[in-house]
């Protein structure tokens, strides 16, 4: 199917959030408005000025997803989003986000055993578009942080393309990669559990998206503090070190 031309006309207005409400309602208003919002949010997220933001003031959202499996390319779907906001090395405890979403597919038994998420729970949950819209609203223009982020980025990209035909443009930092740079050859697997134990961070509620995000946030804060000790002052410095790690 040929992609609609960008710029003027109906699709241009949709991307700018300027579709008249009467027309939007015919299309299914919430979906049209959510699509327009997500598309607008993904524009110009890689602004160069954020690279120079002092690390003490860098605004991040540490997040985690629970999914029906491990391959977004082979039909696995998001089950839940969890996230928490961090500024510098301060976790904003009251600024948290969590939602289940309806994957509209079977949840394998081993995933239910791992996450505690059942079909009955997701049947009552909002659709992917609603959950994705609310998650992206919470993220805003902030830098994302996740552990072993390739998994989460793949699922976010699949969800963004499926719902809005866009790709994730936010900067994403990976606590696994940071650990390999800051603590080389000190760990066997660099798994979240191993790194949390090494940092004396209490492990509880594993494989719940919000609880994993909160524990990863504590790990991120520990690494921010370590980087500041090493005179790593901003995001550009982090990227420079990671490129040579």
Automatic annotation (TrEMBL):
Pfam families: RNase_T. Residues 59-229 form the Exonuclease domain. The keyword Nuclease applies. Transmembrane segments: none annotated. GO terms for molecular function: exonuclease activity. Keywords: Exonuclease, Hydrolase, Nuclease. This is Exonuclease domain-containing protein.
């Amino acid at each position: 199917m040929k992609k609609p031309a960008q710029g003027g006309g109906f699709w241009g207005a949709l991307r700018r959030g300027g579709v008249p409400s009467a027309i939007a309602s015919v299309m299914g208003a919430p979906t049209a408005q959510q699509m327009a919002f997500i598309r607008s949010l993904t524009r110009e997220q890689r602004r160069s000025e954020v690279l120079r933001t002092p690390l003490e003031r860098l605004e991040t959202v540490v997040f985690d997803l629970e999914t029906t499996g491990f391959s977004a390319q082979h039909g696995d779907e998001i089950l839940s989003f969890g996230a928490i906001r961090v500024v510098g090395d301060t976790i904003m405890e009251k600024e948290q986000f969590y939602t289940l979403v309806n994957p509209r597919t079977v949840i394998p038994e081993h995933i239910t055993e791992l996450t505690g998420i059942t079909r009955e729970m997701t049947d009552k949950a909002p659709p992917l578009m609603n959950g994705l819209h609310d998650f992206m609203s919470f993220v805003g223009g902030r830098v994302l942080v996740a552990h072993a982020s390739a998994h989460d980025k793949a699922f976010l990209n699949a969800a963004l393309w499926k719902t809005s035909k866009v790709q994730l443009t936010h900067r994403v930092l990976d606590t696994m990669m940071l650990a390999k740079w800051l603590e080389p050859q000190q760990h066997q697997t660099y798994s979240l559990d191993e790194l949390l134990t090494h940092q004396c961070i209490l492990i509880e509620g594993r494989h719940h998206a919000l609880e994993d995000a909160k524990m990863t946030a504590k790990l991120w804060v520990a690494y921010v503090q370590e980087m500041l000790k090493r005179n790593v002052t901003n995001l550009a410095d982090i990227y420079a070190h990671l490129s040579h790690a």
